[in-house]
Structure formats: C-alpha cells, structure tokens
C-alpha cells in the first residue's frame, strides 16, 4: 500500500466515525458472544414478528406444517450463519461492502450497495409502520388494512415521521449504541411475546396440547388474497427469511466484530425466541381477533381481517402491549438502518457514518408511510432475500473453493479492476433464470432461492477461471 493511499484510508476511517468500514476490525475492538446474543434476540424478537405470525395464519397452514416447518427452517438459518457468515467474517473482518469491492470492483459494487441499502430501508420502513400502529392507539388512529398501500391520514404521517426520526438518531450513533439498545429492549420484548401468547391461549380456551394443536389443526383455505402454505413453504420461507443476512453475507458487517466464529450460534436466540416462539405467539393473538364479530363480518364479505400489531397486542396485555410493539419496531429498524447506512457509505466513502445513516433513516421513514411494505411482508422478505442472497454466494465460493478452482482471491483489487464481469454475469444469469421460473410456472420464490444461490457461486468460479486465465 502506498503512503498516499494509506493516508487516504486513515482520513476516510476518521470521517467514518471509527466503525472500521474500510479496514479490518482490530483485535482491541472485538466483542464477546454476549454482545451478539442481545442484538439477535432483540432484532428477531421484534416488529416483523408481530406481522409475520398473523400472516402465517392467513395462509391456512396446518399445525404440523407450521410448528415443525419453523423448527427445521430456523435451524438451517442458524447453521448458515454459523458455518458461512461468521466463519468468513472472523477471518476477513471486513464489511460486506468492502469485501465485495475487493472481488467485484468499485463500479460494480456501487449498484449492489445501492440496491442493498434501499431494500434494507424498505424493511426498516415496515418496522416503523409496525411501531406506528401502537403509538396511534391513544390517538384513536385509523389502522392500516391488509390491502392498504397509501397513508390513511395526517395522524399516521406525523406519527411515522416522529418514530423514524428517533430510530434514525439511535442508529446513527454506531454499532455500540445499536447493540446496547438491543440489549436493553430485548428482555422487555421477549417478556411481552410470552405474555401475549399466554393471554391469547387463555382467551382461546386452550387447556391442553391437543387444544393448542387444534388452533391450526389440519389447516384450511387461505384468506382472500393469500396463497396456501404447506410444510415446504414454511420450511424454506423461514430458512431464507434472512437469506440476505446469512447466505447473502450481509452480516459479515456484524460478525466482523466477533472474537470467535462460534458467536454465530447466538443467532439461535433470534431464531427460536423470535422466529419460533414470537411468531407463534403473534399468530395466537390474531387467532383471538379472527374469532371476534368484527373479523367474522370481514371474512363473510370476502375480506381478510386487519393485521395491525398495535391493537392485537393492546387487546391482550394493554399498555404494556403498546410499549412492546414500539420497542419491537425499534430493535429491528435500528440495526437494519445501520446496515443500510454502511451500504450507502460504501458508495460515498468520505461521508460520515452519521450522515449516511440519517439518509438511510430518512428513506426508511418515507417507506414507513406506505403500509404495503408491512402488510405484504411475507412476499417482500422472500423477494429481498432472493435478490441479494446470490451475491453472497460469490464471497462464499471464492473463500472456500478458490484453490480448487484455481482462481485468485480479491481479484478486482489485485488486478486494479473497476468492474468484474464474472460477478455480474453469474448473478444476472442465476437471478434471471430462476425468477423467470418462479413467475412463468408460479413457483414459490423461496423454493428457488437456494438453486439461484448455488448456481451463482458455481458460475462465478467458472467465469472467473476463464477470465483470469485470459487476462493472465
């Protein structure tokens, strides 16, 4: 590295606020597994759960398909984090964006970072929507319907903007603040989910495991506008709900701070407290509401009953439910906006962490004004994982198979290449082929995420070997 380049990197790092966006995290800044435990428990026992749990109920899923499908699908997600994401993160200690820059070249990675950051902002926006449904209760705010796409009034707009501003400021303080906020809030949220589940079971008259099982039973017809879920829908959807973060390697940016790769096991706290217990607890809340006269009247009219987390939690545990939903939205939106900020910073490396995170928070707040991102969360999460996950295969296959394939690591950096065509072709072919299959043959998108990921990785190795040999 030349002296001038080194000085430039140091200036960028200073402007970035000490988050090590463009250099490996030093040993002195590494964190124990406890830091990740709180963050993952908080992030995944969070706002999305209040929406996803009820949405599962709208798909007419059976008890076996839901309970066992979630059990195994979440296990696969934890394994993906542990043996792929955290394994690579502790060896490289770089953000996803800087690592991709070394492989893809600066020009190509700009497009990816932009797409990644915007998609993260949309997800964070959905969580701002979730929190707003709780804050709006004391103001007698009209709640968004399952079919709503646009803001439904001035009160909604004011509340969303207020929540978005607070969340953005917390995220802009950096990883330490995001992690501490998660540690403070996650026990309260987990307690709220447990309380909601227990109260809902009482309201449903559940006195035995058989009664609990019969809430879903053999399943039924999906609600209007929803598709029927089977075991495989639940299994693959729950595995790839966070595909962008594990097999898509986004959480390299998080686990680069880990002392050991075994910190990847802490994601189990998020999967089994959040994506298992919390999803089921939230589904129970919705099961109570579905039995109400209001919900039955909507079903009789061919409409799906509202999925508004705030009122569902409030009806079960009162004011504590409002607080829990607000905090749940925050603990998902905070790290998501932080990740989006890192994506934008990779495009504008001389901008400070504070201002790029504020930019990300502003986009997320605008997205939060539109309820469609939350109300169509199952579809959106599947799409966002499918788009971003194959790019992670480039990092994974290069890391584990570069010697067998006979290719150089970080080739764009070595060859001073601004645009690595092998990466673009690998992603474009795999994405285009399997998205076409999904649309043309009406295949559930989560079913083709893994084939697209594998094809992208294999194509990258083949194309890289050819292009590197040709250039040599």
Automatic annotation (TrEMBL):
PANTHER family: CYTOSINE PERMEASE, CYTOSINE TRANSPORTER CODB
The keyword Membrane is annotated on this UniProt entry: yes
Gene3D superfamilies associated with the record: Hydantoin permease
InterPro entries referenced in this protein's UniProt entry, alphabetically: CodB
Transmembrane segments: 63-84, 109-134, 154-172, 184-209, 229-248, 269-292, 312-333, 354-374, 380-401, 422-438, 444-463
Keyword Transmembrane helix: yes
Taxonomic lineage of the native organism: Bacteria, Pseudomonadati, Bacteroidota, Flavobacteriia, Flavobacteriales
Entry protein name: Purine-cytosine permease
Swiss-Prot/TrEMBL keywords: Membrane, Transmembrane, Transmembrane helix
